[in-house]
Each structure stands twice: as C-alpha cells, then as structure tokens.
Amino acid sequence: MGPLIPNGVIPIEWDNIIAILIGIVFGFVLEASGFSSSRKLAGVFYGYDFAVLKVFFTAALVAVIGVYYMDYLGYLDINQLYVHPLYLWGAIIGGVIMGVGFVAGGFCPGTSLCAVAIGKIDAIVYVGGIMVGIFIFSELYPLFQPIYEGYFYGNVTLEDSLGINPYWFVFIFSIIAIVAFVISDMVRKKTKKIFY
Amino acid sequence: MVKKKIAKVLAFRYKILATILVLLAGGLVLLPKYQRHEGIKPEELLSNTISPERYITTDQLAHKIINQDPSFILIDVRDEKSFASYTLPNAINIPLPKLFEEDSDSYLNQNQYDVVLFSNDNFNADQAWILCNRLGYKNMRVLKGGINQWFTTIINPLKPAENMPAADFELYATRKAAGMFFGVVYPDQVKVEAPEKTKEAPKKVITIEKKKKAAAEGGC
Q1: B24 touches chain A (CB under 8 A)
Q2: What distance in Å separates residue B26's CA from the closest CA in chain A?
Q3: A2 found inside a domain
C-alpha cells in the first residue's frame, strides 16, 4: 500500500500542499515546545537542558520502529522509501560547520526560522548569517565542488554499509537511546540549575 | 484518592515509556520472519487464471494477423530448434527457461502491446503465462491449443461433412481463406492454364523481284 504518493494512493500533485501542511505543524510544535529559544537549544552543550537530544532521539526511534512494523505488516514497502545519498566528506565537514554554528548561534536552521517567526532579533541575525554563508558558498562553488560532489557512496543505509540485521540494529539503537536519556538526566541533575 | 493513584503511576512515566520502546523494538527482533511474495495477490492470480479472456483462439489470431493489427506481439516459448523449423509470422522466440532474462523483459513487462504466448500445445505457454502474471505483467494472452491447433484449424482445416450446419461451412471457408493467406494452396483454387496451342503461321514467301538493271539509255 505505502508509501502513499509513489504508489498513487495520493496523487503526486498534492506533494507540495502536504509538505506545506506538515511544515506548518512542525513549526508550530517546535515553537510550542520552546525550541525557538536559543538557550534551550544550547542547553545540550552546557548540560542544563537535554530536551533537544531527547526529542530528536525519540522521534527517530518512534519513526524507525513504526516504519519497520508497518513494513512487517505489509502497509509500507521499506524499499521504496527515499534514502538520502551519502557524500562522505561533504557530510562530515558540513556536520562540523553546522555543529559549530549550533553552539555559537544557539539555533539549528529549522528552529532559527521558527524563532524569526516570533520576532527574535538574534534569530534574524542568525538567518542573515545563513544567507551570507549561502552567498559565499555559491560564489566559491568551483572551489568546493570536488568535496561537494565527490566521495559519493550512493543511497546507502547502515544496513547496506555495515551488513547488520536492521531489526537488531533498531533494538540496540533503542537501548542506546534510553541509556543516553538516563545519563543525560544524571548530568542535568549535577549541573547548576539555570533559569532561562 | 484516584488522583493520588494516578500521580503514583505517573511518577514512573518515563520508565514506562522507556520499557514500551524497548519492548516494541525487541518485538521486531523476535517476530517470526516470513518470505514476502512478490507480484500480485494469490486471489488476483486465481481470478485471472479462470478468466476466459486469458485465451485467444487461432481464428481470432488469424483475423488479427490478416488485418495487420499492430496491437500485439507473438511470443514463441518453444526452444530455438522448433522455432527455426516453423513458427507463426513475426513471432519472437523466448524459450521458457530464458523467460526472465534481461533481454526478454522489455517484451513481456510492458503495457503497450498484448502479448500472445504460444507453444506446441498451450501447456508451456500456460506455464509462462502463470509466471508472468504472478509478477504482475499486463495484457498476457495464450494461444488456445498452440501451434497444433493452428495447424488443424488454419493450415489444414477439416472439411465439414455434408450434413453439418451452414455455419460450419462458412467457418471452413473463412479458415480456408485464412490458410491461403498464410501460404496454403488448395487444388481447387489452382487454375492451371492450359498452354494455348499456337498455330505456326506459314512462312510467307516474299518474293523479291530483283530489279533488272535498266539498260543504259542514250549515252554521252
């Protein structure tokens, strides 16, 4: 049956409309759960708030368990799902830059737009920085191109590259997540409480 | 009282959620694995199998070929040797063991043409039909009776006895005509033109009278 759009259950023309609706709901939930505050986001790095870690880890976990159950029951064909292509060094360098930007600015790109929507000045500056970065990248594209397009490994998953059983991986991943939650809670209790 | 009980349970809410997650993930590991079948559902296959649309008769096929119907392709599932010795016009040879090789995929798995499978009888063609149909290939047909039936109906139709209905005679005439299209020659259709005897015209003797040299007249 699924995925719905590639199998024609939902016509492909609805693609963008559904994307906009999901985007609105995502933005609303981000803002409602306080993710438009840079202090809350940066809390992960200073040890006083692990909401970001918990939320995104749980989201990934629930999604992966749900997808595999739906695949097992025949509602969803896991082989038809989109797998993001891997450009190894592009991903590593990009990840480092994004991480530094995250600590320094206190936002990730999604939450920064969310914070712009509620009128935070630091977020507006941050988004301006993103635009400058995009401009510099575009201007120097010939310089970055070999890294950007090189080291291409195809649309691989951990299942392909490590050859592990996906079911066992999900199980181990969920245990790692829960251990991480417990440890993060212990760390949070030890650090000084910060009112923000 | 109730609130207190709920509060007591809710104090453990994160632990409960964590155990639910681990249980669900563990369930994935422990679930019995099964081989997922490819292609269409068994019920669909069954309904396709008992559908009369599955077969095409030799008469229909002959009609299509004679009218140069472009909407179908003929596929011979016999081996190469039989294919080389006799086959239907414009047929493509895909022997049954080679049915799922890459080259044959473009003929079988498409949605533009009707695919008519045939073999000597319809037995091998039926096997090919079932295999292709299960994979969800569209517009598959089988020539009912195969080449044997083709031979007994189109190439060498049985002459109806005198006490048979008129429809049979009409069918016989149609089949005969179709057979003639495919190169069969009937004795009654052949007009052997008797060579006309041409009388040899007697040679005319043309006598050419030699002009007598005129005697020189006069003189200088």
Answers
A1: yes
A2: 6
A3: no
Residue B88 CB: number of other CB atoms within 10 A? 20
Q: List the structure tokens of A183.
A: 């440890």
Q: Give which of B51, B49, B71 is closest to B60, Cα–Cα.
A: B71
Distance CA A101, CA A56 (A): 18
- Let me know whether B68 and B167 are in one domain: no
Indicate the residue type of B86.
Y
Q: Check CB contact under 8 Å for A168 and B29.
A: yes
**pLDDT over 90 (residue A19):** yes
Give the structural domain span for A31.
Answer: 13-190
Assigned domain for B58 exists:
yes
**Domain count within chain B:** 2
Structural domain includes residue A1: no
Would residue A195 count as lying in a domain?
no
**B39 near B136, Cβ under 8 Å?**
yes
Summarize the confidence of residues A140-162 as an average pLDDT.
Answer: 87
Q: Which of B14, B22, B28 sits opposite A175 (nearest CB)?
A: B22
Interchain CB contacts (distance < 8 Å): A and B:
38
**Is residue B92 in some structural domain?**
yes
**Facing B28 at nearest CB: one of A62, A167, A177:** A167
pLDDT of residue B142: 92
Which residues of chain B are within 8 Å of residue A189 when distances are taken between CB atoms? none
| Nearest residue to B181 via CA among B88, B94, B91 | B88
User: Which chain A residues contact residue B32 at CB under 8 A?
Assistant: none
Q: List pLDDT tens digits, range A67-94.
A: 999 988 888 888 888 888 989 999 999 9
A74: nearest CA partner in chain B = B36
Q: Contacts from A17-26 at CB under 8 Å and sequence distance 24+?
A: A26/A110
Q: What is the per-residue pLDDT across B66-95, written as a single tens digit (0 to 9) for each?
A: 999 899 999 999 999 989 998 888 898 998
Give the range with max mean pLDDT: A23-37, A122-136, B46-60, B120-134: A122-136
Write the CATH number for B94: 3.40.250.10
pLDDT over 60 at B220, yes or no? no
pLDDT for residue B218 is more than 60: no
* Same domain flag for B47 and B70: yes
From chain A, the residues in CB contact with B25 under 8 A are: 61, 65, 170-171, 173-175
In whole angstroms, give the CA distance from residue B107 to residue B116: 11
Q: Is residue B132 part of a domain?
A: yes
In one-letter notation, the amino acid at residue B196 is E
- Are residues B48 and B148 located together in one domain of the fold? yes
Domain range spanning residue B108?
42-152
Higher pLDDT, B147 or A159: B147
